[in-house]
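Sharing a chain and its predicted structure for anyone who wants a worked example. Both blocks are below, sequence first, C-alpha cells second.
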Amino acid sequence: MKRRVLLQGAAGAAFMAGGAWPASAQTRAETLRYVTGATINTLDTTMPGATRESFGLSMNVYDRLFSFGRKKVGENWAFDPDTIRGELAKSYSISPDSKVITITLRPDATWHDGTPVTAEDVKWSLDRHVTAKSLAAPQFTTGSLTSADQFKIVDPQTVTVTLDKPDRLALANLCVCYAIMINSKLAKKNATADDPWAMEWMKTNTAASGAYIIDSHKPGESTVLRRNEKWVGGAGGALPSFKRIIIQTVPEPATRANLIERGDADLAIDLAASDLPTIEKSAKSKVVSIPQTNGFTHISMNTQMAPFDNLKVRQAVAMALPYEDMFKAAIFSRGTKLYGGTWATVPPDASFPQAIPNKTDLAKAKALLAEAGHPNGFSTTFAFTAGQTATAEPMAALVKESLGKIGIQVEIQKKPDAEFNTLESEKKMPLFTDGATAWLPYTYYFFYLYFTRDQRWNFSSWKSKKMEDLTLDARYQTDKAKYEEGCKQMIELFNAETPLIMLWQPNHDAVMAKSVDGYTYQFYRQADFRDLKRV
C-alpha cells in the first residue's frame, strides 16, 4: 500500500445591511468585513447557476475530504494543486494498482450541530454528487467518479473509492468546490419523496462542518459568519484568526475601493484594473496581485466556420494581433504574458498554460492570408460580453485596427452577457474573446476541458483525433515521464494548429487594509477567510 499522512486541513456607510463596526477594539480586530460586487445566490454550491461568491462561501462553511495545499508565489500565497491535504480526511492510501483509494476520517470531526462526522455521511454525500442533477456530477465524471457503487463504507471512520482505471484526477476532484461533505442525517430530515437529496432545502440552509457557521444570510445584501470553535480541519489543527466575517454586497467597484480606503471595510476583489495603480500608492490599503495560474484570456476562432476552418487564416490572425498594445490597454500590463514564447515547435516543458511563440508580424500575416485564398482579406465580427467591457473594449479596438491592416474588416459586437453565453455555447460566433479558468490546473485537464469533444468549453470547436488520443492516454497514464511527454505533444499540436490564441493570465487582485495578511489566491477566485489574519 502507498500510504500518505496528510497535513491537517488547511464605520463609513454605517455599515449598510451589515450593521456598524463592533464597539470594542478587541472585537473589531477579530472581525473581517469583506465587500464583494456580486451576490451569494445559494448556500448549496452544487446548484446550477451558483455564483462564484457562493463557491467562496461554501469553501469556508463546508469541509471537503481533501483540499489543495498552499504555496508562496513571490511574496504572496496561492493554492498548490500538487499538494493534497486533509480536511475531514485524516489520511488516505492508494492500492498498488492505483484503483482503490482508502480514506480514513478524523475521529474528532463534528458537524455544526455537534454530531460526529461518520463514514455514512461521507458515503451519502458522494452518492449525492454523482446521482443528483447538480453541477457536481459532470465535474466528478472528469475523475472517473460516476456511480454510487464506487463508494463503500468499511467502518464508521473509513470509506473506499474504487475506480475502473487509475485516474489522475480522482483525488483532485474531491478538493473542488462541489465536493462538499454533508450532514446526511440533517439533510435527510429535510428531504422529500420528490427531493431525496434535500436540494431545495439546502439552497437556503446548511448541513456543514466547516470553519465558519452562518449566523445570518440576506440574499443580495449580506451574510454574517461566526467561527466554528470545534473545527478540526485547519493546518496543525489551528482555528481561523477571525472570529467573525461580515460579507457585504456592494456592486460598484469604486465604492468598494473607497470603503477600504476609509477603513470601513477590510477586503475586496474584482476591482477595476485602472483603479489599482492609485490604490497601490495608498497609505491605508494595499494590493495583493497574483497571476491567475489556472486561467487564461484568449481570442477564439470557430474552426468549423469559414474562413477560420483554414489553418493559414488562423495563423494569419495570430500574427496580426498587436499583443503588447492589447496587454497594456486591456489589463494595464497586470498579468503574465502567454505570447512571445522563445521556442519554435517543441515546448521547453510540459506546463500549461505557457507562453506560445506568437509575435506580431503583419507582412507574414498578409502573405499567409494570400496563401489561404484571401489576398484582399474578408469581413467578420469580433464579439465580447458586456460584463468584460472594461478589458475587452480597448482590446477590440486594437484588434479591429490591426486586422484591418491585413485586409480583414472587423465589426465589433458587444453582447449582453446572457446572449453572449448562449452564442458561445451554441458555437455561433466566428471570432470572439473570453476568459477561462480550470479548477484542476493540470496540463492534461486543460486540453481535455478546452480542446476536445463537442461541448460547451471547447471554445473554438476544434476537432482533432490526435488530441483526443493524447488526452485519453494522459488521463490514465501512471508513468510520470510518459505523461509529461504526452503533455508536450499536446502543446506542440496546439501551437501548430492554432485553434485559439492565448493572450495572458490576468492578475487576481485583492485590495485590503494594511493590517490584513495571509491572502491566498484560490482556484475558484474568491476569498478564503481561513488563512487571513490581522497583523
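Comments welcome. The two ends are 44 Å apart (CA to CA).
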